[in-house]
Amino acid sequence: MPVAIITGASKGLGRALAEALAARGWDLVLDARSAGPLKEAAEAVAGHGTRVTALPGDVTDAGHRAELVAAARTLGGVDLLVSNASALGAEPLVRLSVLPLKGLRRALEVNVVAALGLVQEALGPLRESPGGAVIAVSSDAAAEAYETWGGYGASKAALDQLAAVLGAEEPGLRVWAVDPGDMATDLYATAVPDDDEPRPAPVSVVPAFLRLLDERPASGRYAAPSLVEGR
User: Fold this and answer.
1) Phi-psi map region of 230: left, alpha, beta (phi>0 left; psi -120 to 50 alpha)
2) Of 21, 66, 185, 209, which sits 20 to 30 A from 28 (CA to CA)?
């Protein structure tokens, strides 16, 4: 069975994607900072009959990243790496004039540095896989100027660039940066707690990710809503 590593998998998009891959027979290594929610998610995902390893920890920890890849090797290798774990930089979000630099550094460490570190750790088995792929979960804030989203958006823009260059440097892999669009997630609720407008559930954009895996288009940046709509 193919093996995927998914970070930030205890809830939201990470958990929804884990459920969908498990239903297709993928074995999984799941990461999140909170052990309790991660264990609950892993147990639910394992109900599909695949092997699921849950490793709580912080992706900014090099030792934890090594553990994730080692666990995937035990399951057979790394066919897919999904960098979904994210940090906002401030909770709730604030304007750049008052954005704590410590928070910005945290967002960059989680969203960019750790994502690259995990790719570097997993690059060997990804290259060995007949269909090795990397998915970097991006954001429309990486390409649009939204007030208060500056720090987070800057980190996601940097992630997009890393994904673009990785795709050029590793032609044997597929490297996709994916903007999932608006979703009802805890991350968004924390970012903008006063916004109670209805938003789609994360499961609604999972078909976009599955389409990438099925069709394997060229490495690049994709918008999930367009993929779901068939464009």
Assistant:
1) left
2) 185
